[in-house]
Amino acid sequence: xxxxxVIPFTIIAVAICILLNTAFSSPDDFVxxxxxxxxxxxxxxxxxxxxxxxxxxxxxxxxxxxxxNGNINPAREISGIEQRNKITGAASYAAFMDSEIDLSKVDxxxxxxxxxxxxxxxxxxxxxxxxxxxxTGTLKGDTSTLQALIDKKGKNVSxxxxxxxxxxxxxxxxxxxxxxxxTIKTPLTLYAAQLIQQGELxxxxxxxxxxxxxxxxxxxxxxxxxxxxxxxxxxxxYAITESDNIxxxxxxxxxxxxxxxxxxxxxxxxxxxxxxxTNRYWPDSNCRSSALWWSQxxxxxxxxxVGKWYWGLFGDAPSRIDTALGHAKECYTKSGSSTYSMHEAxxxxxxxxxxxxxxxxxxxxSANTExxxxxxxxxxxxxxxx
Length: 386
Prior knowledge:
Strand order of the largest sheet: 4-6-5-11-10-9
Shape: globular
Helix content: 25-40%
Strand content: 5-15%
Number of domains: 2
Order of helices and strands: HEEEHHEHEEHEEHHHHHHHEEEH
Largest sheet: 6 strands, antiparallel
Oligomer: single chain
């Protein structure tokens, strides 16, 4: 009898995954080049009543207790203890659609700074490389190679770079919108980290992986069965260091997509009305908005242990800029890519630290090459550091 029941359940599970992937994914599934994608070995796994537990953070292992769900939402479990998810399939999905945490009255403290003011107020021209002088002068250098890259047929490029020492900047079409790809994982995880730092959430809050969070592409959670529970700390880590798409969607669902858009508003970021009206999980963005959330990341790194931990994640994340610069500088960045796009944003350290955002888009998948991105990154580095 059990064998006859497994088949329809499997079919239902696959169908739900397909439907949800279609509903929540962006127009292009996020993909990464195999050579660029990291492959992590998951260790320390065990199971309680056949539900595996993720114990990646061995310094703070799970304290497991099984309790009856009762009226507790089966998709969101943040009580600090493990809870058995007894509801599966359509019932679990229906509950998940109403599972976001009520953070509407939580005031996340956004820091203002000279850097934030510069990003907001700098006036960059359209369709031309614009230089903004800093306190010690204007950036100088040959832009002919960079301009040739911008003019290359089949390519769209935007960038914004600001030298942290004096605010000198260079930019090109900084307000043009692009598919954000995995760069959007930065502001959502920053939102989560700030909620942890303020005591609204905890590293150890538990979230359950359900069908509704499934999406193809990069990450490691796709290798786990639905029903697996993850600490909030694990989800934030995976979203950055593994660029985990499912971790991102779990965070977006549980923290609340409307809360996320409100947070982007508070940062001063631009969003498209169509994205907001449809509560799109993967909103388009632009270089100026990305620079704004990175100015917050740069300040937040000094916010105690949480800020230090969060900042360190970006040092462990794969970086094409790091490769482009020959691994000569510390890069705290978050990359993103799709079939036609390749982006990266963050802070480049070294003798001349700077904030940089690079968005590129190609008219064909074959033109979406890392070598092109590397050239753009190197030319921008020369401008900032010359």
